[in-house]
Specification:
- The chain has about 120 residues and is an all-alpha fold.
- The protein is built from seven helices and no strands.
Amino acid sequence: MALKREDDFEVRRKHLSNLSDEELYNRFWELTEEIVSPLIDLAYKNTSPSIERSVLLRMGFSSLEASKITNEGAKLNLLSKGMGNVVVKYAKKNNIDYLEAGKILSEGTGWNEVIEIFRGDKNC
């Protein structure tokens, strides 16, 4: 037995029937903004280990290095700072190339300095 949907289009569109094409266009984009805004906010404020590994890979680190940096960053609750950002800040503090900084961090050293860099800094 197939279900037949009641045609209620005219009822559902009543509140829009007096709007001009421009008003409909603007209403569409207002609703789109309302729907998408929480998704953008969520993406901006959250990350994941796989995203951070991907960033590090694109920066030129090997898969092993990227994994080690990301795993250590996750243990220290630094993922929200961005692992690429962590590497770059560490490199700047030590006046070294970011690839060298990432190599050092992937070997498990330098993390105490990283913690000091990010301690209390909400804008990093």
